[in-house]
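dumping this here so i dont lose it
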């Protein structure tokens, strides 16, 4: 009987020390993901990009060495090293 009292006393005193378990809840209602934009993959040449995506809205001239050229499309940009796609990036849409 004494051991049960000791255990109960320990629990009564220990619970406030440890506190209760809690967790943050992340609510993601109303957040919509942007639709994926297909962009040219690395290693494709300029002619293939132009064939698949059409003429760019704007072509930035080559700069640096090796020469890096940037083509601007609606929603993404394509960076070329010489004649090959180095990287494609999608544009950030304000408010998302």
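and the seq i came up w/
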């Amino acid at each position: 009987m004494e051991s049960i009292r000791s255990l109960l006393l320990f629990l009564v005193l220990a619970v406030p020390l440890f506190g209760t378990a809690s967790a943050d809840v992340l609510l993601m209602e109303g957040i919509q993901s942007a639709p994926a934009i297909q962009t040219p993959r690395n290693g494709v040449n300029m002619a293939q990009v132009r064939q698949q995506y059409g003429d760019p809205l704007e072509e930035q001239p080559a700069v640096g060495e090796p020469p890096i050229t940037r083509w601007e499309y609606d929603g993404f940009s394509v960076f070329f090293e010489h004649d090959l796609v180095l990287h494609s990036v999608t544009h950030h849409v304000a408010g998302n």
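The two ends are 63 Å apart (CA to CA).
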